Amino acid sequence: METIHSFFSVWGGLAIAILGGALSAAICCAGSARGCGVAGEAGTGLLSEDPSQFGKVMIIQVIPGTQGLYGFVIWFVVIAKLSLLGGNPVAVNIQQGLQLACACLPMAIAGGMSAPAQGRVAAGTVNLLAKKPNDWFKGIMLCAVVEFYAILGLLASFLMISSITIG
Amino acid sequence: MIVKMKRLRLLAIRDQKDELLRELMLLGCVEVSELPVAPEDETMARLTAADSSELLRSRANQTTLTHAVKLLDRYAPAKSKLFQPPPDTTLSELLDDSKLKEDLEIAENIISLDERIRRISADESRERLFIESLSPWRELDMPLECKGTETAAAVLGAVPAATDTAALSAAANSVTDMAQIFTVSEDKEQKYLLLVCRKEEKDDVLASLRPLNFSTASVGDNCSGTAKENIAAAGERLDRLAEEKKSIEDQIAAQAGCRDELKLRIDTFSTVIARAEASSRVLCTDKTFVCEGWVPAEDEAKVAETLSKFDCAWETEDPDPEKAEEVPIKLKNNAATRPYKFVTEMYSLPSYLGIDPNPWLFPTFCLFFGIMFADLGYGILLLIGGLFIKYKLKSKGAIGDMGSMAIGVGISCMIFGFLTGTFFGNIIPEASKFFTGKEAQVFCLLDPLKEPMTVLIICLGIGIVHLLLGVAISGYMQIRDGHPIDALWDSGSIFLLFIGIALFVLVKTPIVLIIAVIAIIWAQGRGAKSIGGKIGSGLYGLYSVVTGWFGDILSYSRLMALMLAGSVVAQVFNSLGAMTGNIVTFVIIFLIGHVLNIFLNIIGTFVHTCRLEYLEFFGKWYREGGRKFEPLAVNTKYYNIAK
């Protein structure tokens, strides 16, 4: 019991903080993979009819990929704050670790849930491109509306993480 | 500014119709509209619509030319440089219709050659199928038409690959010992067999083989000689077809020199179609025709001068204010505000009695875009891109407008990037640390990452000013339309509210605020009839005003959100690159990261700038619903008309 307690008080904070950053990257990337997958499936349908649209289809497909990028950004900010990549992590107590992990939540949840939703809009945009090639950009703009909430999640997480002091 | 329009009514000689429409097209400022005919009006009912076969024919011809150009591009791809401005041509060359027939023949020739190529391709696939059907029998040295001798029958057939040939022979021999089965060839699916037996026993032998899935094959009907000979002959035919195809393709490619001429004629047909469309809208008697249309008041003198050359009677009149929705909208803007008509058109053109939003869009759009995309480096890139489109490509139309817009918003991004001390994120401190080990200091008036609260408050403040601007325009429109009292209640009460809030916050006097609240309740409730109704709808109005304004103002927090998001992502890429400790990977990560960031942010910023303009700003004052003024004019796709 004594050893477990001392182990947690030394290493637990760091582990919980890493868990937060890791969840942000993992959930967002998984969401983006689903979103890009849905958009890509719709894209292959169009490409099988008209391969010359490849450039536009690819642009549409990468749009739901940004949440993964944002999740990665938050992961990176956490990791940099912990100086983990240098090999000498700073000392983090349990409270600070929990604070960092909680601060990662907006990004993890907003990113992970908005990416599949945006993927569906992107798939619709592929249909739009197939039927009304001149108006495809309007579909892109609809995708950007979904994007905004992932951006807000990114900001909420980022501002909280940067105002938590550790060490 | 919304250009004042006049309705034009024109009565002229029918023989001069084509010449007159041609002159009006060159003038480019008259829209010929459908003539309204009341069904009970007997005089008008006797008029006939002009012949529209010319229109259909011209459209078909233009499609032919377009198809021919596409075929040329397929068989002889043009070595076009990327980013090339369209070539120049003169008006007389464009309108020269003497060569139209000749060029149409060239186009039809190209299309018929392509049809021959398609027929050859069909023949080729038929030959290939023939070869494929014969190839299992390649080793059979018996002519295919041979069905046996006087007494013996030769039958070709196939069984599934898994069937044992010994079992087949046994089955055949159970009927007669005068039967033999040879295996000609086999592949993954089937074994191909030759059965020889006596003619009179053939049916019995086949019946005995049927349980083993033996099926007779009809090979090479109507052909003589062995399978090998037939395959060789088909191969030769294929070679000949390929040769023929190649020579026809060369014939098409040899026409590549006509491509520019054909493109010019596509544009020529566009002008013919424009005239024919206008012509289909006029009504005729035997000798005269009558038409209606719209002409900008400022161009009336020009139209008068042109029409004076013809034997015609015409009049113009101001549009009926009751029927303002009929009037087409032409917006007159200067070089700075013109590009924003594209933003306006994406929403809806203003109604004829509304106000042109472009002069208001120009400063606010630049401001918002600059705040959200604030980065000195990105701003420079936008500016360069805009200048390139405008002065190197000399693009017109939508792309040209985008270029002008990029110049404006690029400068704005540079200003805000400079104030917030961002140049490709934080590349200057990051790179100086990377190369010299010392972090360079950059001028920075306000660091959004360190003081996000200040940025947020500034953004909301800008939002309030933007919204109040909208309220002021709305008030101006009410005064202009002769409702100054309504303007005072609707717009004045809102201004009073904000003055009241400001006084309450700054000098703690609530009196103006209280007056403003009462004024708003009165203003919102003044439409109701009874006292109770006035109070009820006034209170509800106050509630909607307050919640509406609250939401509207908070919406401007997106200015801060997008500004921060862009710079956070940029900074992360910079530090990722620097972390690798290697100059090559640093540059690669820098390039990829910033290209990605710019691409994502331009779309996001554009959408959210539009949203602030459409939802928050236009919501306060804009009167939409106009139809675009589309005059009969020379419009080209491939060529630029040199003046």
Topology summary:
The complex is a heterodimer of chains A (167) and B (643).
Chain A: H1 2-49, H2 54-62, H3 66-81, H4 94-131, H5 136-163
Chain B: E1 5-13, H1 17-27, E2 31-33, H2 42-45, E3 48-49, H3 53-75, E4 88-89, H4 91-95, H5 100-134, E5 152-160, H6 165-175, E6 179-186, E7 190-198, H7 202-209, E8 215-216, H8 227-254, H9 259-280, E9 283-284, E10 288-296, H10 300-307, E11 312-317, E12 328-329, H11 341-347, E13 349-350, H12 358-372, H13 376-392, H14 397-419, H15 427-436, H16 452-480, H17 484-507, H18 511-525, H19 531-555, H20 557-579, H21 583-621, E14 624-628, E15 640-641
Parallel strand pairs in B: 4-15, 12-14
Antiparallel strand pairs in B: 1-10, 1-11, 2-10, 3-9, 5-7, 5-8, 6-7, 9-10, 13-14
Quick summary of this structure?
The complex is a heterodimer of chains A (167) and B (643). With 167 residues, chain A is mainly alpha-helical.
**Proportion of β residues of chain A?**
under 5%
- Rg of chain A is 20 Å
- What is the share of helical residues of chain A? over 70%
The domain count of chain A comes to 1
Mass-distribution shape of chain B: extended
Mean pLDDT of chain B: 88
Structural class of chain B: alpha+beta
**Portion of residues within helices of chain B:** 55-70%
3D structure, described in words:
- The complex is a heterodimer of chains A (167) and B (643).
- Chain A is mostly helical and 167 residues long.
- Chain A has a single domain, classed as Up-down Bundle (Four Helix Bundle (Hemerythrin (Met), subunit A)).
- Helix content of chain A is 83%, strand content 0%.
- Chain A contains five helices and no strands.
- Chain A starts with a helix and ends with a helix.
- In chain B, strands 1, 2, 3, 9, 10 and 11 form a six-stranded antiparallel beta sheet that branches.
- In chain B, helix 3 (53-75) crosses helix 5 and helix 13 runs antiparallel to helix 14.
- Chain B is extended.
- The two termini of chain B are 26 Å apart.
- Chains A and B meet through helix 3 and helix 5 of A and helix 20 and helix 21 of B.
